[in-house]
Specification:
Elements lengths: L1 E8 L5 E8 L3 H11 L2 H4 L2 E8 L14
Antiparallel strand pairs: 1-2, 1-3
């Protein structure tokens, strides 16, 4: 499954680093996300969000049917 990872980092101005990982489940995705997080982001990260990545081709938009 594909997961999207968003990491908030930086002080005093906060920035966001977003990347995708592939893993069998959320537990494995957490490990992969931690390994792939860039060193400069790790130093001052204060929030990490992990969610299932949306497939834009499988997504319905207003007025559309899948």
């Amino acid at each position: 499954m594909r997961y999207q990872v968003t990491v908030r980092h930086g002080a005093p101005r906060q920035r966001y680093h977003t990347y995708a990982v592939e893993a069998a489940d959320v537990h494995a995705a957490l490990g992969v996300a931690a390994e792939r997080m860039p060193t400069e982001v790790r130093r001052d990260a204060d929030l990490v969000e992990l969610r299932v990545a949306v497939d834009p081709d499988a997504r319905a938009y207003v007025g559309e049917e899948l």
